[in-house]
Structures are given as C-alpha cells and as structure tokens.
TrEMBL record:
One of its GO terms (molecular function) is calcium ion binding. It is found in: Cell membrane. Residues 6-105, 106-214, 215-322, 323-427, 428-539, 546-664 form the Cadherin domain. GO terms for cellular component: plasma membrane. The chain crosses the membrane at residues 664-688. This is Protocadherin gamma-C3. It holds the Pfam family Cadherin_2. GO terms for biological process: homophilic cell adhesion via plasma membrane adhesion molecules. The keyword Transmembrane applies. The gene is Pcdhgc5_2.
C-alpha cells in the first residue's frame, strides 16, 4: 500500500508528519515488535519513525527549492520495512512550498547606456529577478519608479517566466539630463509578499545633436599696422553641450576668406587664438573681416560661424614715393629760364597728416620746384645754364611727409647739359715766337700751336689753317714755306729757310671748331730765322781770277809803315759769322809785310834793302768767326820796282773799290730812317684814335 502525506517545507526537527500505525491500522506494539525500519530514496534521511508511537517526524531541514527546484510539485519517497512477516510500504511525502524566498536580481545595480537619439518605443531588456519559490509564492510582478522617460513592460514567457523591459516613452536629451536613476522592484505573490529592488542607472550616450555656439555672434579687435608676428588678435570661445568628440571643438578660418587674408592671420585650432602671421599694412586694407568656423568632432560634424572684424590703425610707416611723370635727362645749355625739366608726382600711402608730402631741392642749384597742384610738382630752370661751367647735375628731390617722426625719400635726377656752340676756340698763347736756324731740314716741326674749345663733341673738334698776316710782303707767301696739320696744329717746313734771303716771317694760324655755324680765332706766329755760317768770306779787292795772283808794284824807297794795299772782303752771313779777320799765312819774307787783323790793310814793316828779293809773294787768308769758321785765301805778288805810278794805281784802285762800302752803309741808314718814320706815324695815328 502507499501512504501520502503533505507537509510544508522548512518544518522544524521533530515536527509531526503522520502516524503510520494509525494509517496502516496496525497496533503500535506490533510495529515495534516487527522491527520497523524507514528507508529513504534520497541520500539524506529527512524523516524518522518513533516505533513506540508510530509517528513519522521531520529529522532534517527540508528545503523544497533545494530538493525540487522549480517543479510545481515536490515529493519525498520513503519505504517502511516490517519483518515477521516481511512487508514493504511506500510513503509519499509531498513538500508544499512556502514563501520563504524573495525575488532576487542578479545584481543590486545595473547600468544601461542608451543613445540619446534612440527612437521612441525602443525597448531595453532588464535581467529578470529570480524567485525559487513556486506557485503564487514565486515572482509575480515588477514595479518601476516614477520617471518622465521610461515605462515598464513585463514580458511573460510560455514557461511562466516574467522579463522586465524598459520602454522609451519620451525622447532623451543628454544635454538636459545625462544620467537617469531608476528603481525596479520585483514582487512575488506570497502573503505577505516579498520583494527586492535593483537600481538602474541609465547613461544617456551623447549624440552630435548640438552645434558649437560662440559666446558672441561677432568679435572686434584693433591692431596697429606692422604689428609683430605672433601678436594676439582675439581669443574666440565656442562651447558645445555635447560631450566627448561631439563636444570637442576645432577652430579654423572659413574657406570664404581670401588667400591673402589667410596669409596674414592664423588661428590655433585648439585654443581659438587668432594671431598675426603676416604683414599688416593699413595702406592695403584698413579693415579685415575674418570668417571663423568652429566644428565639433562628431559624426557627422556640426559647425558654427562667426566673424571677427579687425580694424587697422595707421602709423607713419611709408616714406613718400616720387614718381616721374615726365623727365628729360638731357637739357640744352641755352634753355630759357623756366624751362620744365621734369614733372614729378608724389604720394604717400599713409593717411591724414602722415600722407601729406612736401618737396624741395637744394637752393644752390639752378633749378627750382613749382607746385602745380596737390601731389604734383614741376622742376624748372631758375638761372642760366653753362655746360662749360657745370656739365652734369645730380638733382636730389627730397620728399618728406608730415608724420612724427617724418619719413622722407630722396630721388636723384641726373641731368646732362647738351652742348651749344657758344664758345670760340682759344689759343693757349696770343702769339708765338719761333727761332729757327736757316738751312733747316724739310719736314721739321717748326712750332705746334694749340687751342682749346670748352664746348664738347663736334663743337670742340678743331681745325687749323695758315693765313697770310696783314702788312707782310705780298711776295712772301707763308704757305710756300710752311704747312700745318689740320688737327694737331703742328707747323712743319716745306722748304729750308735762307737767312740771307729772309730773316723774319710772320703769319696767322686760324682755328675753327666743328659747330654750325663754326666759330674761329687766330693767333700770330713770328718766325725769326737764325743765321748759320753757311757763307765763306768773299774777297772784293783785289780782284783776282781763280788760281791766279794779283800783282802789285812798290818802289824800293817805300818807307814803313806805308800802306801797300788793302784786302777787302765781305761775308753774306751776319753777326759773328760775318766778323772777318785777316791773316798773313805765307810770305817770301815774313818780316817785311804785315796785315791788319780787322781792316785787312797790308803795310810794309821795314825799309827795303838791296838784299831783299825783288818779288814777294803774300798769301792772305780771310776767316770769319763762325763755328766752324769759313775762310778765303788771296795771293798777292808784290814787285819791287822803280815804277811808282803802279803802286799808286794800287792805292787808287783800293780807293775806288773801297767806295762800295759807303754805298751799302748809306742804304742801311736810309732804311733805318724810313722804318723809324713809319713807326712814329703809326704811333701818332693810334694816339689820335685813342683820344
């Protein structure tokens, strides 16, 4: 037979289960005598039988959840063995569940990470609580703490399990609330019910749903031009309420900015500092408007724009500029006063007083500046120009602004004066005097005349020519004897001079320049011909043929110092070359006759004697004082005879021939008187004209 008992779990030891003797209808004493034994199918002995009373009792703690888990019904099976006779009885004990276990979550706290852009209705499963009890004592329901965004949905499975789910009912916004803290309560159906709680922390994951925001829509800054590189312009500040990469901001210059502006300004992408990296020039731009964008690092990125207006303050950093609108680097030296040489335009890229320009040139120059109107000047001649005095001018035009300190710029205008043929050639000497020896070689340089012309180029190219001097002998043409090189001025001889024919020659040398019309000048050249000893003395008396001697007769009674004869000679040369001396070189009796050194008179020096020869041959040499000296010899034969008249004839002949000398002297005296008279008349006429 099989006996069934039903007891709740967790009974204390010794708790009554059932009376086996009563239930079997057997006497208790008989059970005790039959050696009753209780055998269990499990390893543990949960029950025992009191053989004296026949009562089955709980001997160990019974945990239904441990024995049967989640089975709806839980049974423990026992066997009763009785001897004499042997009998077996099956006892089935059903263990009833009691609500001794609350629902338990796997952990006390769970964290969820939910994207803030999650769509409404999205479900987020939560690990369920476990309750080992069964029936109504097991987990029955969940409760969620009040909140604005989530509802609880409990999903029941076919096996009876219940799984909680969070359902998004209202959109999340991390920027408003980054964390949500919820309490999920699991409750069973016991009486009283048991429950447990689990904290749910929901971290709202950021979505790049917010763009960066500048703290100001626009920024302004003011800088001085030529600010040093690296100067801070402005520090931008943009914020993004997103987090992580979505809130990490990078600054950059917008692509709307020009390439030139990008070369002037740079921005730090991390800090947003805009600094100067190029040259700031007020004259190029007075205001810069920089477009800046701030981007986050989300995906996709979001950006915001702002503008930075940078005003540039002018400083006096630009020197004036001098621009030649019109300029002639060559100017004729005879240009009239007020001739415009250059038109000058000046400008200064600075502004205000710093952009006003004043110009001036040195007052020591023959030029002046005339202000035509604002920013334009004309450079004019102020005095007469003379290329021969100053041929080249470097005119420094100084332009200064009115800044503080003022800046200036100097421009040099080179002006060359073009020559005008306004200067006649000038000889280095007003006249030239030349002394030349007669018999000069043909082609020898007589004199070199030199003239200068302060003009230039063609106007200074000189040409020389020989002209007859006024008042000279018409028959004495200087070009017959002389020629002149047209460019060097060298006067050379074409014929040798002969002092005995011409002792003096004068002529004009004319020089003309190459200008148009040509200018001319003259100089007078006096040529004095120096005598050379080129003529030997010539004996005029006594006359004798070539290779013959002249015979003279004297009386034996001729007493000393009687004049026997006189040798008369002349020399066509002049000066020392015509100083003659007479020498008795040979004589039959050297002591009988003598010759006067200068007069050539031959006298007897002693009385004739009978022993003396009747004929005496005398060799008389006439020598001049030239170097080397030239001489002529004459042979006289003196016959001693008693024929006086012949001796007298010699004396008379001497007188006759000697008469030629007074005639020559007379000619010289007459010429001197005439020359003196003409000179006095000329001086008188000149004096009258001066008065």
């Amino acid at each position: 037979a099989q006996i069934r008992y039903t007891i709740p779990e967790e009974l204390t030891r010794g708790a009554f289960v059932g009376n086996i003797a009563k239930d079997l209808g057997t006497d208790v004493a008989k059970l005790a005598a039959a050696n009753l034994q209780v055998l269990s199918d499990s390893d543990s002995q949960y029950f025992s039988v009191n053989v004296n009373t026949g009562v089955i009792m709980v001997s160990e703690r019974i945990d239904r959840e441990q024995l049967c888990g989640q089975n709806a019904r839980c049974f423990l099976h026992l066997k009763l063995a009785i001897e004499n006779p042997v009998e077996f009885y099956r006892i089935e004990v059903e263990i009833l569940d009691i609500n001794d276990n609350p629902p338990e979550f796997p952990s006390e706290e769970v964290s969820l990470r939910i994207y803030e852009l999650a769509s409404l209705g999205a479900r987020f499963p939560i690990q369920p609580a476990q309750d080992p009890d069964v029936g109504t004592n097991t987990l029955q329901t969940y409760h969620l703490s009040a909140n604005e965004n989530f509802n609880l949905n409990v999903k029941a499975r076919t096996d009876g399990g219940k799984f909680p789910e969070l359902v998004l009912e209202r959109a999340l916004d991390r920027e408003l609330r980054a964390f949500h803290h919820l309490i999920l309560t699991a409750e069973d159906g016991g009486s009283p019910p048991k429950s447990s709680k689990m904290r749910i922390t929901i971290q709202v994951l950021d979505a790049n749903d917010n763009h960066p925001v500048f703290d100001r829509p626009s920024y302004g800054a003011r800088l001085v031009e030529n600010s040093p590189l690296g100067t801070l312009v402005v520090k931008l500040n943009a914020t993004d309420v997103d987090e992580g990469p979505n809130g990490d901001i990078r600054y950059s210059l917008s692509s709307h900015n020009s390439a030139a502006l990008r070369q002037i300004f740079a921005i730090d992408e991390q800090t947003g500092e805009i600094r100067v990296q190029g040259n700031l020039d007020f004259e190029e731009a007075t205001v810069y408007e920089i477009e800046v964008e701030a981007k986050d690092m989300g995906s996709p990125t979001m950006e915001e724009h702002c503008s930075v207006v940078v005003e540039i303050t002018d400083v006096n950093d630009n020197a004036p500029e001098v621009i030649l609108t019109s300029f002639s680097s060559s100017l004729s030296e005879d240009a009239p006063l007020g001739t415009v040489v250059a038109v000058i335009h000046v400008r200064d890229r600075d502004s205000g007083e710093q952009g006003k320009v004043q110009c001036h040139v040195s007052p020591d120059l023959p030029f002046q500046l005339r202000k035509d109107y604002e920013h334009q000047y004309s450079l004019l001649t102020s005095t007469r120009l003379d290329r021969e005095h100053v041929a080249y001018y470097n005119i420094t035009v100084s332009a200064s602004d009115l800044g503080s300190p003022p800046l200036s710029r100097h421009t040099i205008l080179p002006i060359a004066l073009a020559d005008v043929n306004d200067n006649a050639p000038q000889f280095e000497q007003a006249s030239y005097e030349v002394l030349v020896a007669e018999n000069n070689p043909v082609g020898s340089v007589l004199v070199t005349v030199s003239a200068v012309d302060p003009d230039s180029e063609q106007n200074s190219r000189l040409s020389y020519s020989i002209l007859r001097a006024g008042g000279t002998d018409p028959g004495l043409d200087p070009t017959r004897y002389l020629s002149i090189h047209p460019t060097s001025g060298q006067v050379t001889t074409k014929l040798p001079f002969d002092y005995e024919q011409t002792t003096y020659l004068q002529f004009h040398v004319e020089v003309s320049d190459g200008g148009s019309p040509a200018l001319r000048n003259r100089t007078l050249v006096h040529v004095f011909i120096a005598d050379q000893n080129d003529n030997a003395p010539r004996v005029h008396f006594p006359r004798a043929g070539e290779d013959s001697a002249t015979q003279l007769r004297i009386s034996p009674s001729t007493a000393p110092p009687a004049l026997i004869t006189k040798v008369v000679a002349i020399d066509a040369d002049s000066g020392r070359n015509a100083w003659l001396s007479y020498h008795l070189v040979e004589a039959t009796d050297p002591g009988l006759f003598s010759v006067a050194l200068r007069s050539g008179e031959i006298r007897i020096t002693r009385a004739l004697q009978e022993t003396d020869a009747s004929a005496h041959e005398l060799l008389v040499v006439v020598r001049d004082a030239g170097e080397p000296p030239l001489s002529t010899a004459v042979t006289l034969v003196v016959l001693v005879e008693e024929r006086g008249p012949e001796a007298l004839q010699g004396s008379e002949a001497q007188g006759a021939d000697g008469g030629g000398l007074p005639t020559i002297t007379l000619y010289l005296i007459v010429s001197l008187v005439l020359i003196s008279t003409v000179s006095l008349v000329a001086l008188a006429v000149l004096g009258v004209r001066c008065l």
